[in-house]
Amino acid sequence: MSKESRDSNLGDFGLGYHTSPPEKVRRRSSMSSSFDGDSFSSKELMQLDCALTLSLGTNIVPKPKDADYCYSIPPLIEEVEALILARAPRSEYWKFFLVNKRFLALLKSGELYKIRSELGLKELSIFVSPCGERKWWEFDRQFKSCRKLPILPADETFIRGDRESLCAGTHLLVSGREIEGLVVWRYDMEANIWSRGPSMINPRCLFASATCGSYGYVAGGFGMVATGWEVMDFAERYIPQTKSWEPLPNMIKKRRYCSGCYMDNKFYVIGGRDPDGRGLSCAEAFDMEKKTWELIPDMLEVDDAQDQALNNQSPPLVAVVNNELYSLETRTNELKVHMKRSKSWKKLGTVPVRADTTLGWGIAFKSLGNELLVIQSSQYGPSLLYTCCPNPNAEELQWEALEHGKNPTCFIVNCSVMAA
């Protein structure tokens, strides 16, 4: 394959990376260490790798410009190729774009993601976007690889304004306001493209959201109704398979500046402000099976809720790890865990970032599998990234600083985690 062909294929996918593309496809030693050990036995891995090597060949190919036109090497059955590639780390998929046109078409078709879903294979990605920019970056779980997404083609009003992001399946949803009103932009990882819509049934901003399985849930917020702008109690669910929204029963209370999470097979909406601007310490939980909301009084400490409303702090910073709810207190930088039996909060020490300096804005506090992830961004210095494995029974947690390929000086306005 010529250099021009490879550059063209990469350009079509809008990829950015920090290392030169490999001259050869990885051999068995690197592949077997990357694959899920439960998927294949060592003997099967050797057999599949030999077959894959025969199918791909090496970079020393005489005359043909594309592997598709080399008839001297017997090809693998397409179904077997797909099963092998589906087990490869998703963060390495861009390297297969260099192999041949057939692999490129397979990656764009979305078939590999369907196979991964059927096999129960999931890999975490973190998507971040700086304030006032069209750029989005995708990082792997260890922040060792970085990929630049295609440029978001929204208008300047959308880019410069407040935005909220949410992942559902292989879709990254970004909502905000354009000149003509509230809209949603969707990034499709399978096709590697941005598309506008679909808009929510009740467009809104400043709402709670959470990824629940392969669905995206939103509730509350501030939006336009027949009588004008008002605080909402509407809720709805995004279905990635149909690229559509479906309505859910209304919440018990209207609220904005609230936060969402998924725990105990329920969608929780926590805190926020009521239509009069007063802080709410209560939460609501939506039961997926019963399709009903339950009001939970004083789930947040009352002083924290009132302080949020009075001082224009960010919505509550909450995350769920191992079905336990954690909260980052933006006034004191303390980490707390919610004790379900006593319905109280236990302190677990301070986090290694200063959420108090920005009232919580620009701080990403996310669940990353069995870890907590916290990112502090700044327009005056490099971003700080830390993870820890939380333990509700610990007195204080051990945080690990992460190094990352890009060390930008910017204020992060969006951060979302995708498992696909």
Automatic annotation (TrEMBL):
Give the signal peptide range.
none
The name this protein carries in UniProt is Putative galactose oxidase, beta-propeller
Positions of region (Disordered): 1-32
SMART domains found in the cross-reference section: Kelch
Q: Does the keyword Magnesium apply?
A: no
Q: What keywords tag this UniProt record? A: Kelch repeat, Repeat
- Determine if Manganese is one of this entry's keywords: no
Write down any Gene Ontology CC term: nucleus
Cited SUPFAM superfamilies: Kelch motif (SSF117281)
Source species taxonomy: Eukaryota, Viridiplantae, Streptophyta, Embryophyta, Tracheophyta
